[in-house]
Write the structure tokens for this entry.
Amino acid sequence: MGGGRVAHPVLKGPSVVKELVIGAVLGLAAGGLWKMHHWNEQRKTRAFYDLLEKGEISVVVDEE
């Protein structure tokens, strides 16, 4: 009774192209999220200064 051969996977080194593509995609995704965060903060700051300029809000505490 002869034993059957078991196919073992051949371990290869990392695929450089695949790692570059994955790194680029992750980098662009993280950069896009960071950029959207900064656009949101810029929008909030611009809205604050617009309200301040219109006189609708004040940074001075009213004394009673």
Observations:
- The mean pLDDT is 89.
- The chain has one helix and no strands.
- The radius of gyration is 29 Å.
